[in-house]
Amino acid sequence: GQQVMQIPQYQHVQEGEDFTTYCNSSTTLSNIQWYKQRPGGHPVFLIQLVKSGEVKKQKRLTFQFGEAKKNSSLHITATQTTDVGTYFCAVFQGAQKLVFGQGTRLTINP
Amino acid sequence: ETGVTQTPRHLVMGMTNKKSLKCEQHLGHNAMYWYKQSAKKPLELMFVYNFKEQTENNSVPSRFSPECPNSSHLFLHLHTLQPEDSALYLCASSQSTGGNTGELFFGEGSRLTVL
């Protein structure tokens, strides 16, 4: 089934610096979802990407889906302390089986 | 408030105990999920139910027994667990229509400690 490798596993930045996490698959993906989990919290849906080359923005967050639909990225511009947490990509193996990447844990030095 | 409620939030049990985790969703979704989250494997799918029928069992040991009496309720019955089963158990729901599934809504999780 479709799986994704997510890198890096950890990222520590100074507040105001940018941050990027990447998900890569060996197979073509039908779509990809992104979630954020705050420390002590539960995963919360951020966005779903479906189209080849798609780029979506949510304020300081930019999501991209590769042209070949085998990779995706989440970029945060000028991080703030509220961005702390773990960011997961997730893909479907079949209609309902949502499989998550390993996650990238973001910590920020204020 | 996510629309998905899990109880209990914390549970401590011995290896010989029997306990159950409960999940209830108020979103009208037809699919429900159990995930396990631990330091070793961040978000590991366990079971998926669609319209109360099990559609996925991700090779979960039989000491975990799910039950889905209707589309709004999901249980995870625990029996003879091991210390390595200590983890955060997350329930989620989604709307699945015509082979397409939308976003998952997660509950707050049940933190399980097995002594």
Describe the structure.
- The complex is a heterodimer of chains A (110) and B (115).
- Chain A is mainly β.
- Chain A is built from no helices and 11 strands.
- Chain A has strands at 5-7, 10-14, 19-24, 32-37, 43-49, 55-58, 61-65, 71-76, 85-92, 98-100, 104-109.
- In chain A, strands 2, 4, 5, 9, 10 and 11 form a 6-stranded mixed sheet that branches. A 5-stranded antiparallel sheet of chain A has the order 1-3-8-7-6, with no helix packed on it.
- The mean pLDDT of chain A is 95.
- By secondary structure, chain B is mainly beta.
- Chain B has strands at residues 4-7, 10-13, 18-25, 31-37, 44-50, 53-57, 64-70, 73-79, 87-94, 96-97, 100-101, 105-106, 110-114.
- In chain B, the strands form 3 sheets. In chain B, strands 2, 4, 5, 6, 9, 12 and 13 form a 7-stranded mixed sheet that branches. A 4-stranded antiparallel sheet of chain B has the order 1-3-8-7, with no helix packed on it.
- Chain B is globular, with a radius of gyration of 13 Å.
- The mean pLDDT of chain B is 93.
- Chains A and B meet through strand 5, strand 9 and strand 10 of A and strand 4, strand 5, strand 9, strand 11 and strand 12 of B.
